[in-house]
Amino acid sequence: MSGIPPLAAEDHTCTGCGLSYPELTLDTARAIIGSLPDAVDAVAGSASGPDLRRRPAPDRWSALEYLVHLRDVCVTYTIRVHRARTEDRPVLEPMLNDLRARRFRYNDRPPEGVRAELAACAAGLGDEIGRLTPADCERVVTRLPGEHRTARWLVRQAAHEVTHHLEDIRRCLSAG
Question: By the 8 A CB rule, do 138 and 151 touch?
Answer without folding.
Answer: yes
